[in-house]
Design a protein that fits this description.
The complex is a heterodimer of chains A (about 280) and B (about 425). Chain A has about 280 residues and is mainly alpha-helical. Chain A is built from eleven helices and two strands. The longest helix of chain B is centred in the first third of the chain and has 34 residues, at about 1-35. Classes of the chains: A mainly alpha (about 280), B alpha/beta (about 425).
């Protein structure tokens, strides 16, 4: 029983952390169809900006928020100058965002160097549940992730902005004929996705080593999350996708070892895609 | 008649001229070298200056560079200066091959030093063999346990870093007596951690200990909950740690965040100055680390060496076991050339065998003739509480002045 409870807790922690890392990708890919290969680099940027903020003695929370805004702003510039000209050609955006990844990674190495950087865990300690200790900081991140996803859901389904966005996804031409400013909406969504990536990068930084390639770790996993969950299903899809990719790993690793668990999970993801190529939640 | 004679004379003269010219051209490299004694001896250095292992590349190339500068300041070798030709292989095995060939064919270096990982060395192995040049290899590695790779049991390669029995065995008894005999092994999923653990388990069995868990983690794993749970359940005395690179940092940070740091003793064979800097003191303090070299070892050689190193590269420049391996490789290579009196491969190889360097930063280093493996000092250190830089990071716990490796499992002697 205690084992089951602790596995459940771990699974929740992993699922929500991965959902946080994948959320920016899910938004951009799901809502405007751009496969953002630069997502990993944006996570890394967020982590480095947070590190830099801490070096300037800016408090952690503020550093993370600033990182989110800076990465979001960089994303906006990238969209404004380049991406907006290629919305109708997915392969070109794939290449362009990949180029963004390459250039950004090299720039990070030039500006920040390639030594490992450390972001000190702002909330060390752990919460003792009697039978199990869970890390305080991880718990806070997960609560935050749940909050972000729920509030995005609220905006999406309960506000007029959400209706406009959904209208735009369903039929871009019609929405634009009815007076919606498509290019502005795309810009905002792209910027918000980048903001989330930067924020996530800053938030995971205290758990990981801050190095120029740290985002890569989450890039492949995030893609699987989005594809397994279903493109466009940014809420339930992201959560379930994260569970399949991250949470199942914990459960499988209980009965075997880590290597087999990772292989098994990706195998399972491929099987799911064979049966439901549109993802678990998508309808078409 | 006269005409014919003239023609034949000219053609004879031409023949002689042509022959002489071609002899000069064909023989010119050796010829010029013999004539100009102060032409440099060229050594090609393969370093991961950029790419994933940049963090190691800096100390790696600087260690060699410093030694070359010292040798040249003292008058060079055989009256000739040494010229170091640095090639950056960008942590890419394909580029190891490319750069090694470039150094040998285009730069015409007399020998090679460097490469970082065993995989890099295996890539360079066939090339140095085909070109019949030497490669001096600086990194701690899994030893020469089977001869099926080109990078081991290769008569053209010399190893200046420690193998597992030098790095781990000397301290097993101390650690077991102090903390207990139940080991949990966690390592990255490739050859070096697996072989290191194989040797560690062998010794542990001898000491009456027990392995309560053994996991291998794929590269770039961000989450460690399931491993942490396994460790909690196995209740080991010592977590024996051979994860590499950023996975080390990720695992260790999460171990600390889970509140498990004080429940277990952690012994790592991978976290030298570079990685421990990346961990920060909250995460790393109290950890045991073993290597042949640390910046904080108390040895007069090391003090002198660090004085020179930090004067040259700044007081915050990192040094580590790999950089010192390169430093020793340069000095011992130069000593061998001096001893041999010439720079051809087989003379240097013979001279390198058994050569002893007592000015090595970690103590005395000796190149074993039998299998080209260095006999080195070995140190067990403990990471200090609240350290602020590499200069006060480790405190010395145990010292072995001469750790003798196991014989390589090759057709010996090499």
């Amino acid at each position: 029983m205690e084992l089951a409870a602790s596995v459940l807790l771990d699974t929740t922690l992993i699922t929500l952390t991965l959902a946080l890392a994948a959320f920016g990708l899910a938004i951009i890919y799901g809502l405007i169809g751009v496969i953002n290969m630069g997502h990993g680099a944006m996570l890394t940027l967020g982590a480095y900006f947070t590190w830099a903020g801490l070096q300037l003695e800016i408090p952690f929370v503020l550093s993370v928020i600033l990182s989110g805004f800076i990465v979001g702003f960089i994303g906006l510039l990238f969209e404004h100058w380049i991406i907006k000209r290629f919305y109708n050609s997915p392969y070109e955006t794939l290449l362009l965002t990949w180029a963004f990844f390459l250039v950004t990674t090299e720039l990070i190495k030039i500006v920040f160097g390639s030594d490992f950087r450390t972001v000190v865990n702002p909330y060390p300690g752990s919460i003792d549940l009697g039978f199990y200790k869970i890390p305080t900081y991880r718990t806070l991140i997960c609560v935050f992730t749940a909050f972000v996803i729920l509030s995005t859901g609220f905006v999406f389904f309960r506000t007029s902005t959400g209706i406009k966005i959904r209208a735009m996804i369903q039929n871009r031409e019609m929405a634009s004929l009815l007076g919606l400013n498509i290019s502005l909406t795309y810009k905002i969504i792209f910027g918000f996705g980048c903001f989330m990536a930067g924020l996530a990068g800053g938030l995971v930084a205290p758990m990981l080593s801050v190095s120029p390639y740290m985002g890569d770790m989450y890039l492949v996993r995030s893609f699987f999350v989005v594809i397994v969950g279903g493109i466009g299903q940014i809420l339930s899809g992201t959560i379930i996708g994260s569970f399949v990719i991250g949470g199942l790993e914990t459960i499988v690793a209980l009965f075997s070892d880590q290597v087999i668990a990772q292989v098994a999970v990706f195998f399972f993801a491929i099987v799911i895609l064979r049966i439901r190529p549109q993802g678990i939640f998508s309808e078409k | 008649m006269q005409n014919e004679n003239k023609i034949s004379k000219i053609s004879r003269r031409q023949l002689i001229k042509t022959a002489a010219a071609s002899a000069v051209i064909m023989g010119s490299p050796a010829f010029i070298r013999n004539l100009h004694a102060d032409d440099p001896i060229k050594i090609g250095v393969l370093s991961p200056v950029t790419g994933a292992w940049t963090v190691y590349g800096k100390a790696h190339s600087r260690g060699f560079e410093l030694a070359v500068e010292e040798i040249n300041a003292a008058g060079g070798v055989l009256g000739r200066p040494i010229e170091m030709v640095l090639a950056d292989y960008q942590t890419d095995r394909r580029l190891v091959v490319e750069q090694a060939n470039r150094l040998l064919r285009q730069e015409r270096v007399d020998l090679l030093a460097g490469t970082f990982s065993s995989a890099d060395r295996n890539a360079a192995g066939p090339i140095v063999k085909a070109a019949d040049k030497l490669l001096l290899y600086p990194t701690w590695y899994e030893g020469q346990i089977e001869e099926y790779y080109p990078g081991v049991c290769n008569e053209n390669i010399f190893m200046f870093g420690p193998e597992p029995t030098q790095q781990v065995w000397p301290f097993m008894e101390y650690m077991c007596n102090k903390f207990g005999k139940k080991f949990f092994m966690i390592g990255s999923d490739y050859a070096w951690p697996q072989v290191t653990n194989m040797f560690t388990k062998e010794k542990l069995k001898e000491l009456g200990g027990e392995t309560v868990g053994e996991v291998y983690i794929p590269f770039n794993t961000p989450q460690y909950e399931s491993v942490l749970r396994q460790i909690r359940q196995a209740k080991p005395d010592i977590i024996f740690h051979s994860l590499t690179g950023s996975d080390t940092v990720n695992f260790r940070k999460q171990l600390v965040a889970a509140g498990m740091k004080n429940d277990f003793t952690l012994w790592t064979v991978d976290d030298e100055e570079v990685v421990t800097s990346g961990l920060g003191h909250e995460v790393s303090s109290g950890t045991y680390v073993s290597f042949d070299y640390f910046m904080t070892i108390k040895h007069q050689n090391n003090k002198d060496f660090l004085d020179r190193y930090q004067k040259r590269y700044g007081s915050d420049a990192l040094m580590n076991t790999v950089g010192v391996g390169m430093y020793n490789a340069a000095h011992m290579g130069a000593m061998a050339i001096e001893k041999a009196g010439k720079v051809d491969t087989s003379s240097i190889r013979e001279a390198l065998k058994g050569i002893k360097f007592d000015k090595a930063p970690q103590g005395t280093v000796e190149m074993r003739a039998l299998d080209h493996q260095a006999v080195l000092p070995s140190y067990l250190m403990r990471v200090r509480e609240g350290w602020s830089s590499v200069n006060d990071m480790f405190e010395q716990v145990q010292t072995v002045a001469r750790a003798v490796p196991q014989d390589a499992r090759c057709n010996l002697p090499l």
